[in-house]
Amino acid sequence: MSQPPKDKRTKEYKQWLKDNQQGLGDKVDYLLNETPIASVTNAIKKTIFKDGEDCGCDKRKKVLNKVMPSKLVPVRCFTESEYADYKHFKKVRTLVMKNDQIEFVAKLYSDIFAKQYFKPCSGCSPKPLLRMIEMLDKVFESYENK
Fold this sequence. Notes:
mainly alpha, 2 domains
C-alpha cells in the first residue's frame, strides 16, 4: 500500500483511499503498520512470534475485508418484475415520496444488497432513503448500459 497524501482535503487523498483501502481489513492493516503505532505493533509481533513466523495478518486482513467491504456490492440482480417496477418508480418518483414508495425502495434495497430491512421514517432525515435510491439507481443503470 502506498503512502497517503499528507493533506486529507485533497482529491489526491480521496483517490488514494479509493485505490488503496478496500475494506475494514485494509484499514486495520494501515492503522497498525503505517501510522505512528507501527513501532508498538512491531514490538508486540517480535515478542509473540519468532523471526519468519506467520502472524496471521494477511489472513485477518482478508477475513475483515470480506466481512466489511468498503464498497457496497449487490449480491443479486433485479428480477424482471423488480426491474419493471423500479423503471416505473423512476418515472413517477418525486421529492416527496408516499409511504408505499418508501416501503418499495427499502424492501428492494434489502433484497438486492442482502441487508437487514430498514424503512426510513418519513419525518426523519432523507439521507438513508436517498442513499438506498442512489445505490439502486447504479444497479438499474448497469442494465441500461449493456
